[in-house]
Amino acid sequence: MRTRTRDPQTLGGAGTLDRMARILAARNIDPATVAAPADEPEPFSPLDALPAGMPPRYQGAVADHPQVLEWVQDVARQAVAPSTGARRQVTTGPSLLMAGVVGAGKTHQAYGAVRQLVQTGVGVRWRVTAAADLYADLRPRPGVDTERELAAVSRCPLLIIDDLGAAKASEWVEEVTYRLINRRYNHMLPTLVTTNLAIKDLRAYLGDRVSSRLAQMTTRVEFEPVDRRRHRTPA
Ligand SMILES: Nc1ncnc2c1ncn2[C@@H]1O[C@H](COP(=O)(O)OP(=O)(O)OP(=O)(O)O)[C@@H](O)[C@H]1O
Ligand SMILES: [Mg+2]
Asked: What is the value of pTM for the model shown?
């Protein structure tokens, strides 16, 4: 990740600056010619980097669902600083299950929640994956360490699993989902799940072990049964 600062204090304080000035004077170099250019970018901010991980459709998404906003606040509140004075980081926290019909606005709220969380100022490594893409990535195949990929997704401080239940059900899908959810459940890692399925169908799709864990670890958010894609101006 790009990190930079223009604060001269980080060079070692006034003493360092004086030494630099003396060195430049000894070499007949005008300090003005080595000063930072006026158009140098501002210091790095996580908000600047945010759009990089966001698909264009959701780059401007704003979370406005009260339960989603409440969840963001809860996750931010539970962030802890790894050392005194360091920025607070998301480590453990509550999870959210957003259920609703196609086009209800679940993915919009999910990306909006990530933006909102970053705006609170806490440090958070996050990842969004459609469940079907995740299963494709995790399919065992020669030359790919899919166990390592599963471990990485399982550990990610904030994981958004979009469209759980959209891939074809199978024993393998159930097992992989169980291993992923079980790890996140055990480590109490904030996980935001979206689904088109009703809870009873989720249970039939993923089995008791996953649905039991999701029932305990998530707050459930129900969306109005409106397909927003069919009720708005085209974009
Ligand atoms: N609160 C909102 N304000 C403005 N536009 C919205 C809002 N919520 C959703 N939209 C827009 O409505 C469309 C559908 O939203 P979204 O993709 O989030 O639905 P979804 O519930 O994830 O659907 P699916 O289940 O098919 O994945 C998108 O174009 C999205 O940008
Ligand atoms: Mg969606």
From this structure: 0.81
